[in-house]
Fold this protein.
Amino acid sequence: MPTTTLGVILEGIALERRFGASRVLTQVDLAVGRGELLVLVGPNGAGKTTLLRLLAGLTRPSKGEVRVLGHALRSTPAGKRAIGVVSHQTLLYDDLTATENLRFTAKLYGLPSATDRVNAALDQVGLRTRGEEPLRRLSRGMVQRVAIARALLHDPSVILMDEPFVGLDRASVNQVCAILRRLLDGGAAVVASTHDPALVWSLGTIAGVLVQGRWALYQRLINGDGLLARCEELVRG
Amino acid sequence: MADLLRPSVAIAAKDFLIEWRSRTALLSATVFAALVLVVFNFARDPASLSPVVLAPSVLWVTTTFAAMLTLNRAFMLERENEAGEALRLAPISPNAVFLGKYLANLAFVGVVDLVVLPLFVLFFNVDFGGVLLGLIGVIVLANLGFIAVGTLSSAMAVRTRFAELMLPVLLLPFLIPPLIGAVQATTRILAHRPLSELMGWLRLLGLYDIVFFTVCLLVFPSVSDE
């Protein structure tokens, strides 16, 4: 059972997920507080994406509960409003421009001053000048940055990221890390799943290694450097 | 109500903008409809069968299958980059998604009808004098229910591996009542029969619209869930 911290805004309580007879997650607990980043690692098929989908409310847990800001995730729209997701896929429409995609998101979330927010979000990911081009004309890395802008447009308090650095060059990775730093300083709780934990290790406050659907390690990062090597060792098996 | 309509209109407008850019569904549906009308026009023997007898069936077979092409596209859009997940993440009711898709499909099928109707007049040489408004009324009445069922079926079919094949299989059995009603009403309109002869079929279409729109709206949240 993970240590609970003050100001916890994202909790997973005894989460379990089965697909038919196969159990993908077993008794997974987690608690992420304001300004904390859980670095989620694990080998392929360990259940990282399933865990993120449970935390996002996209998949129902077979057992257990996800609580956001103290409420059951699926009980109120406020829970959904508090969550921003960067997925494997971009969740964007290739035939629309970056601006149109973000405007559409703003309408879904009922955000006031949508134009200003969209411009600010595009500025944040360094794509203001490419905002009027259809996504299919942008590179994979640029589209990934638009996907990050989409996830952050409604100022969520919880950000869930599944392999956020896929397709990004070093400069873009640094840019995303700078955004994450700002979000953490602003009190957001972040869970980032990655195959390369070193990229976000300096920002992380909790390390979680999933192996075969269970925590093989769930620990606060106090002396982070030694733990990174141990995490990588656990992932390699 | 505004919480339902605001995202619905946004979803419909987004679908329309994407379709306007790609023209995938509308172009294929209108070309298909034109080809079917051409084939029927040359396949029939004008001496043995009056256009008024054949025309209603041809009109409805053509528009129904053309509409299916546009309905197929409705939720396929959301499969690209898993964009549909963003709809599920948003703090909106699943009914808003259904309404948005329904409005977009109504508009798409309306555009297909607008193209089909003049071609139909051209090929079948049917006398539309004084009956055009009535015919448009029947088309609208039939479309309201048919597209509700089509939107729900499209949402179900897209979750299968063979979405394009599944849609007709799921949809066609539910289309039998409105198709019969629409063909019968259209036959009477084109034959300039009095309104009293149509009322039974119009009532059937109206009842179908109310029942199936309500059922689809209620069922959609469980269809759209994981």
User: Anything to note?
Assistant: The CA atoms of residues 156 and 223 of chain B lie 6 Å apart.
